[in-house]
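Batch queue: ligand-bound targets. Current item pairs a single chain with adenosine-5'-triphosphate. No template structures supplied; prediction is de novo from sequence plus SMILES. Inputs echoed for audit trail.
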Amino acid sequence: MGVLPPFKPYVKKQKGLYLLGFAGSVFRFLIPLSVPVVIKYVFDELLQNASVPNGDKVRQLLFITAIVLAVFFLVRGPMEYVRQYFLHRANNNIIKELRTDAFRKIYTLDAKYLTDNKSGEIGTRFFDDIEKIRGYMTAVFSNIWIELTVLAFVVGIMFSLHFELSLLAVMLVSMQFVLAHFFSKRLKSTTQQMMNYRSVLNGFIFEKIQGAFLAKLFASEKKDKEELNGHLARYEHFTDRQARINALSLSAVNVLSDAIPFVVVLAGSLFVIDGNLTLGALIAFFAYVDRMRSPVSALVQAFPAITEGNVALRRVFDFMDTPVSIKETEFPRTINEVADSITFRKVSFSYRPDRELIKDLSFTLRKGKTYAFVGESGGGKSTILQLLTRMYDPDGGEILIDGVNMKELSISGMREQIGIVTQDSFLYSSSVIDNIRMGSLEAEDAEVFAAARKAYAHDFICALPNGYETELGERGVKLSGGQKQRIALARVFLKNPSVILLDEATSALDNESEKLVHQSIQEVSRDKTVIMVAHRLSTVIHADRIFVMRQGRIIESGCHNDLLTADKYYKALYTEQNSTDMSVA
Ligand SMILES: Nc1ncnc2c1ncn2[C@@H]1O[C@H](COP(=O)(O)OP(=O)(O)OP(=O)(O)O)[C@@H](O)[C@H]1O
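Prediction returned. C-alpha cells below.
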C-alpha cells in the first residue's frame, strides 16, 4: 500500500511514536491469539488424558487460569493503552503539521487564486479533507499492519495444526479480498467526485452566509433554497452511489465471512472422522478461523477509509503544490524606506488574457507628494494599487522603487513600506485596539491612541461599550462604514509607512469628517508618497498631481487648476459632479 510521496516526510517524523504504538499493538493482539492453543492443550492433554488424576487436573487448570489472567491484566491491558495513546499522538501530530503547512500556504497564494476560488472551497481542504486523512491514517498505520500481522500469525498457527484445512481457509478468505478490491476500484472515482463536489457545496454555503444580509434585502431566500436543493441533489447523487457500492461490497464480503467457518469446520469434521485431526485441534482450528474474520473484516472495511484518505491526500497536496507566480528572487533586496520615487515604465497588465486592461502606462511618483487617480469606473485605478502592492505582476514593462525593479525586492520588506486603506477595509473579530495595533505590533497604548486621534476615531472609540477593548464582530459589523474606515486609517497611521495608498478610503465619511481626515492625511504625508483613488473629485483637489484614467490609459494629468484650465475630460467630470452636488444641496 503505497503512501503518497509528499506525505512520506510527515509520516517519517512520527516514526518513534508509531513504533511504540506498533509494539503495543503486537502484544495487545497476539496475547489473546494464544488462548486457543491453551484450550487445545486443556482438551487434548488434560481433560481427555486418563493417566492424569482429577486432583492434578484441577490444580493444573487453576494454575493455567492464574497465568492467563495475569498476562491479560498485567500485559495486555497496559499494552492496549500504549497502542491507543501513541498511535493517536502520532496521527494528531501529522494532522497538526498538515494544518500548519496548509495555513502557511494560504499566505503564499497569489491574489488571483484567492479571488478565483471561494473561501469555502479552500476551507474544505483545511477541515474535511484533513479529517479524512485522520481516518486514512487510523486505517493504514494503526489497523492494517496490525490486522495483517494478526492474520499472518493466525494463518501460521492454522498451518501448524492442519495443512490442507488451512489451505482451504486461506483460499476462501482470499476471495473476500478479491471482492473488496474489485469494489474499492469502483469506489475511488465516485469518492473523488463526491469530495470535489463537497468543496463546491461548502463554497456555496460559506458565500451565502457571508451574503445573508443581502439575501434578506433582496428576499432571495426562495431562489437560494432552490440553488441549494440543486447542489444537495447532485451531492446526494454521489453519496448515494458511494453508499450503494459500499453496501454491495460489504454484503458480498460478509456472506463469505459468515460461511467460511462453517465450511471449514464441516471439512475439518471429515478429517476428524478419518483420524487425521484431534477434536481439540478442530476446536482450536474453529476458534482461529473465527479469529480470522475480525482482521479480514477490519481490512475490508478499511478500504473505503483508505480510498477517501487517498483522494483527500491528493486534494490537500494539490493545494499545497498550487503554483505561485508572485515569487521572490533567490537573493531579494531589502529596503528600509521608499526614499525617492516609484516609477511605472511602460506597464501593461490584464486579469484575463483576452482583455488587456492597462496599456503602456508610464509615470513617476516622488516622495513627499500626493497623487490621485481618477476617472471612469472600471478604468483600472484600483488595479494600479494592486500592482503596487505586488498582488499581481505586470505582463509587460516594469515597476521601479527607487530605481530598482520591484521584482528584485523582498516582498514582505516592500509591503512593510506600504499602508493601504480601501473602501471596505477588513477588520478582524478582535478588540478595536488589536485591530489598530496590527499596524505595529509593538506599539504602546499611547501610540495607538495618538494614531486613532489622527484618524478622528478616538472619540467614537471611547464612546463604545468597552472603549478600545470593545470586541468587533466578524468584519466589524458593529461599526458603521465610516467608523471602520477610520479604524483602518488609524492602523495605517500607526504603521507609519513610506507609501500610503487610499482607495476610496474616506468614501463612507460625511463631508465634515472627510475634510478633517484629509487634513490629517496631509499632515502625516509630508515625508511620504500618498496615492489616492477617488470618485469624488472634491477629495483630491489638493493632490500635487492628478492622473485621469480612461480604459487603462492616462488621458490627462496635472494639478487641479491645470486640469481645469485644460478644459478636457477632467473639467467635464468636475463640472458634472459639482452641479450634481449643488442640486442635491
Ligand atoms: N481580480 C480581478 N479579476 C478579474 N478582473 C478584475 C479583477 N479586479 C478587477 N477586475 C476588472 O478589471 C477592471 C478594472 O478594475 P479596477 O478595480 O482597477 O477599476 P477601477 O478604475 O478602480 O474601478 P472603480 O472606480 O469602479 O473602482 C474592471 O473591469 C474589473 O471588472
